[in-house]
Amino acid sequence: MTQSGTRPVIVLVRPQLGENIGKAARAMLNFGLTEMRLVNPRDGWPNPSAGPAAAGADIVLDRARVFDTIAEAVADCEHVYATTVRKRGVTKPVVGPDGAAQLMHAEPGRHAVLFGREAAGLETEDVALARHILTVPINPEFGSLNLAQAVILVAYEWSRIGREAGEQTLVQPTADEAPLPPAPQEELNGLIAHLETMLEPRGYFLPEARREATRRTLRSVLTRPGWNHLEVRTLRGILSTLQRGPRGD
Asked: What sign does the CA torsion over 113, 117, 121, 125 have?
């Protein structure tokens, strides 16, 4: 996963409903974002309605920080994006979610994305604090996104650009899921010898003139996958079972 310092900070400005904060947290964690900052949430913080709506994204809510002003919330960020459908009379570079995501991965420093309150979005003075305006190219006759939808669009594009650049994977394996290293050559040789021992009396390597070529092909087949220790043990167990023959009733 890409370093946490390159992940954008999601700043919810004067959010109104705890449910929407929770849904935004859920949208963030779906794509690996965990840092949420709240500016003057209407109903205070923590909000009991946020947890159920987050559907398990508790890490985002537990780490959420509250600020009195946007300036304080983004004080440690070099790049600030204001999400808005309209420019609101402020002249700033305009980017879409994909363009913002490219900047987030390319430009050093911390990046923060401002999202306004549900009823009316960001105010003109809020947008003035940003360096870029982030606008989603949606239907001009129905430009209505809820808070979580807006957050997930930005989070998805950030994740997508990172994956395409090879900087991160969406899902990291846990310790139990991490791939095992390849088996030592000694174990692999033992597997091949075990199989050859079973095949020899059944005439697999005949005719004699093809014996060495057949053995090389068999070895090539068995070494190509890069078996790990557990897989080799499993295959040896299968061969041993077959070697014993069927059990009597």
From this structure: negative
All domains of the chain in start order, with CATH:
4-164 (3.40.1280.10), 185-244 (no CATH)
Phi, then psi, of 213 in degrees rounded to 5: -65, -40
Give CA 34 to chain center in angstroms: 11
Mean pLDDT of 140-152: 87
pLDDT of residue 111: 93
CA distance 71 to 144: 27
Q: Quick one: how far is CA 8 from the chain centroid?
A: 14
CA 51, CA 57: separation in Å to the nearest integer? 8
By the 8 A CB rule, do 111 and 81 touch?
Answer: yes
pLDDT tens readout for residues 75-100: 989 899 999 876 555 678 899 999 99
